[in-house]
Write a structure and sequence with these properties.
13% helix, globular, two-stranded antiparallel ribbon
């Protein structure tokens, strides 16, 4: 496993939920899912009643998670792209998911589990710690950033580091 993949898995372990994206009837969709990482693979728990698992099973999907709402100075986003398949988790894996929701959109929650075999992993990191971009004084040209909520941030300099792992 590459260092980028290890970093992405470490970041993913910091949050519980993300979004899975694929297409259904030639239209793109994004759905929330609970995740865990087991043996270098991403396992998802979704609500069977929505039917999204049928579109994902056997298809290439992207699963993304982030810490955007955390107010942290270091914002990150990870994406795992690969083929998804419906699986039956072990008892230990089920326990790692934690409690299930009682309802989804007013319906009783019925879990379905998917495994993503990552083929491509992306990590994006934004640094709002106030460090100037290389060669640019703090507050100078190129330092006009935005807060995680999309508002201009004064004195903050976003630095974007893009890492790809195949």
């Amino acid at each position: 496993m590459s260092t980028e993949e290890i970093r992405a898995i470490e970041l993913l372990s910091r949050v519980s939920y993300g979004r899975v994206a694929t297409s259904m009837r030639a239209m793109p969709f994004v759905a929330p899912a609970r995740h865990i990482v087991a043996d270098g693979r991403v396992l998802l728990r979704m609500h069977r009643g929505l039917g999204y698992h049928r579109a994902c099973n056997g298809s290439v999907v992207a699963y993304g998670a982030d810490n955007f709402g955390s107010d942290a100075e270091h914002i990150w986003s990870v994406q795992f792209t690969g083929t998804a398949e419906i699986v039956e988790p072990t008892d230990r894996q089920r326990a790692a998911f934690g409690p299930e929701p009682v309802q989804v959109d007013g319906e009783p929650f019925t879990p379905v589990f998917m495994r993503i075999e990552p083929q491509f992993v992306t990590v994006h990191e934004l640094d709002y710690s106030g460090r100037p971009e290389s060669g640019t004084p703090a507050g100078g040209p190129g330092s006009e950033g935005h807060s995680p909520e999309g508002h201009p941030s004064e004195g903050r300099s976003p630095e974007r580091h893009l890492h790809h792992a195949a």
